[in-house]
Structures are given as C-alpha cells and as structure tokens.
C-alpha cells in the first residue's frame, strides 16, 4: 500500500488517453490539472470528440495520438480494445512506452497480447469516472489499484504509480495488485454485489411489497430511495456506522431477517459466479454475446428499463430535481 506517489516520473511524458467516456474524461482532466501533457485519441466523428475539444484538449485519431506518446491509456469500452490495439496501437506505439489499462480483462483473458518491447501496466480507480473527477476537484481522490504485467524499461511500476497520482488516486490509497486479481475481483464485485446483486435485491423487495398490495410509491422509497442513505453510512464508516444510525428496531430486524434473505445458499451461488469468472466462462460468454450483436444484453436491459419500479421511480424523481445535481455520469451508448 502506498499514498506517497508523485507524478514526477511522467513530468516529461506525453500521455495519450484513448476514449473520452466515463473514465477517459475524468483521467484526462485530472492528469491535465496535475500538470501533465495529455492528448486525446478518438475515432474521427466519434460521439465524444467535440466534448473533448470543448474541454480544451488536443484531439486526434487514436493512431496519431499513440505515435507520439510515452504512455497510452486505453480507456475505451473493454470489448472494442482488442481491435483498437491491433489497428491503432500495436503498429504505432514506441518501444519503451507504457500501455495502461483501467481494467485487466483483455490482457488477463488474452484478448490482447501486447508487444514485448513495451511496459504494460494497470491503474484501476475503485469508483466511476464522474467520482474520479469530482473527488479530484475537491482536493480528494478515489482509491486505485495498480499492477505491472510487463516491465520492459525497469520503470513500469513507477509509471503506474505516477499515473495514479496524476488522477488523484494517491491522495486516497494505492494498492498493488496483479492483472488477474484486479480482473476477477472487479468482475465479481460488479456482478454479485454492486450492480447485479444490489439491483436484484431492490427489485425483489419492491415486487414483494407491491404484490402484497402496498402502494408502489411507498415501496420505491423504502427499497430504492432510502438505500442511498444506508450506503452513504457504509461508505463513511462501514457497517458499524450504519448500525449506530438506525433504530434499535431496525437493528434487530437486520440481525434476524437479513440472513434469512441473503443466506448461505446465496453465498454458494456467489461462489458459482466467482468460479465462472475465474475459469473464463463469463469472459467467453460476454465476448460471444458482444460479437453476436448483443441480443440477450439488449433484451435483458430492456426488461430492467421497463420494470414498474422504473416507471414509478421516474415519476417520483421528477418531483426532486435536486437529485440530479450530484456526481453525474454520462454513459456512452454501447455499440
Ligand atoms: P465508456 O463506455 O464510458 O467510454 C467509451 C469511450 O471510448 C467514448 O469516448 C467512446 O467514444 C470511445 N470509443 C468507443 N469505441 C472506440 C474506438 N473504437 N476507438 C476509440 N474510441 C472509442 O468507457 P468506460 O466505462 O470509461 O470504460 C473504460 C475502461 O475503464 C474500461 O476498461 C472499463 O472496464 C474501465 N473502468 C470503468 C469504470 C467505470 O466506472 N465506468 C471503472 C473502472 C474501470
Ligand atoms: Mg469496478
Ligand atoms: Mg468493472
Ligand atoms: Mg439486473
Ligand atoms: Mg424505514
């Protein structure tokens, strides 16, 4: 663990940031504000080109950005990275330059096998891009994990730490990992708990109340809206702080009913999710789904968007426009 990294190693480096979405925009702005030299590489006429220009960046095609760069940060969606690597990076990246990822997926699952004459590193913030930017602007930072896959120059680790410092991560915490650990834990976290687990818990709770005849508006506030308050307490002080702030009645209900809902059978199924990640089943399925044009992905996504909790939620959130003023993400469409 380290919190003392500085940007010194990259002081004279040119950094090419490929992709200007959630992570790309946040990294590029933070690196620039940390005094580093940043150029943005995008597809000509891509959806975020004008946004990067409006933010004051020099924007060129990916291949051109790679050509002059000492460090190339690959911040496009994971599924487009293998083609981007083959077409724009591999033929153009300088020997001795660093290739940086924010998620280990493509290297770990061998979708990208980088040239042997470059450094290959990882800096993954443990938070969404909008937070990486807003925390930096407040003088704070989002913790990052970093790793070295290939150290050609003998300076790969220093470069990763300097980049993490440049995006503000060193203000919080840098933890050394490897591509395998970052990839597997990141996928597990988002599938079992953060995105998949949390949203299913909310949806099943909403359905249980509504099917029992309670008003959907009240069900929405109970199982979705109020979750933020609980998660903020987790974030600030863990489960300890949450228990300090809720009533004795809520605590007793937590102790006796929580384990009835999420029980050892749930944990066994979490282990199944982890096993599919570790043995490559999830990666294989996801790559096949992407290459088939996302048929199931689109169907499943539409079902979430059409769920009654989203209908009632949109109506209730429209009454609270101030909810929209916090850290916002502006997701880029997939494909
Ligand atoms: P995103 O979908 O928000 O951004 C995509 C960007 O890449 C856009 O600027 C888009 O125009 C551009 N792009 C798409 N195809 C391109 C191509 N062929 N050539 C050049 N540019 C192209 O992506 P993201 O969510 O920021 O993810 C980027 C990386 O960061 C991924 O490896 C992801 O796993 C990782 N990551 C994301 C988060 C997150 O919160 N979103 C957190 C940690 C790590
Ligand atoms: Mg993650
Ligand atoms: Mg992830
Ligand atoms: Mg879901
Ligand atoms: Mg209550």
Automatic annotation (TrEMBL):
Its EC number is 1.1.1.86. Residues 1-177 form the KARI N-terminal Rossmann domain. Binds 2 magnesium ions per subunit. InterPro entries: 6-PGluconate_DH-like_C_sf, KARI, KARI_C, KARI_N, KARI_prok, NAD(P)-bd_dom_sf. The active site is at 103. SUPFAM superfamilies: 6-phosphogluconate dehydrogenase C-terminal domain-like, NAD(P)-binding Rossmann-fold domains. Involved in the biosynthesis of branched-chain amino acids (BCAA). Catalyzes an alkyl-migration followed by a ketol-acid reduction of (S)-2-acetolactate (S2AL) to yield (R)-2,3-dihydroxy-isovalerate. In the isomerase reaction, S2AL is rearranged via a Mg-dependent methyl migration to produce 3-hydroxy-3-methyl-2-ketobutyrate (HMKB). In the reductase reaction, this 2-ketoacid undergoes a metal-dependent reduction by NADPH to yield (R)-2,3-dihydroxy-isovalerate. HAMAP family: IlvC. Belongs to the ketol-acid reductoisomerase family. This is Ketol-acid reductoisomerase (NADP(+)). It comes from Dyella psychrodurans.
